[in-house]
Amino acid sequence: GENVEQHPSTLSVQEGDSAVIKCTYSDSASNYFPWYKQELGKRPQLIIDIRSNVGEKKDQRIAVTLNKTAKHFSLHITETQPEDSAVYFCAASRSNSGGYNKLIFGAGTRLAVHP
Amino acid sequence: GAVVSQHPSWVICKSGTSVKIECRSLDFQATTMFWYRQFPKQSLMLMATSNEGSKATYEQGVEKDKFLINHASLTLSTLTVTSAHPEDSSFYICSARHSGREHNEQFFGPGTRLTVL
Hey, of B37, B43, B90, B105, which one would you mutate to test binding to chain A, going by the most A CBs within 10 A of its CB? Predict the structure, then answer.
């Protein structure tokens, strides 16, 4: 079945450094890849997403890259700040499938940004 | 826009009782809603896909008779945990797919923390 692997499970960086989280997916028909930030006890918040027709997307300090051939995508956070500390989840889905566009989530990465 | 609410935000119940959780899309119509379960320090696991006016589609390993889903309108889906047991204690989160937006984008509710004693 569909599977999304995410690494690392934990990531600790100093404020101002960059953070990179990587995911690989198994379903070659996947065409939508969102990234969510979840703080403790809260709902996942969409921070950026990318579709399979582009290789990179950037929004201020956050960027996502996609390599369809290798079936992996990455989240890049530059100039990290303490408020970036949270759990980040990648996900993958494909449209117009019998599964009604269901998202398959990675296991999550706990990011800690130290002042 | 695209706000999803859940009610209740938390609930404590005795073992053997049933609990109903509501998921509402407040400012948009959602033909499809999704129900997830999240255990502490784990990822979101999809339980079922709820489609307005039809039966829900359950993921493998999820008991449809235990987790009853009703999607009676374009803005409301309910999840009923029947005969709850302590192992059902978890964070239940719904999401809704906005019918008028990009076809994959989902908006999440704030979650319901269920504790079964």
Answer: B43
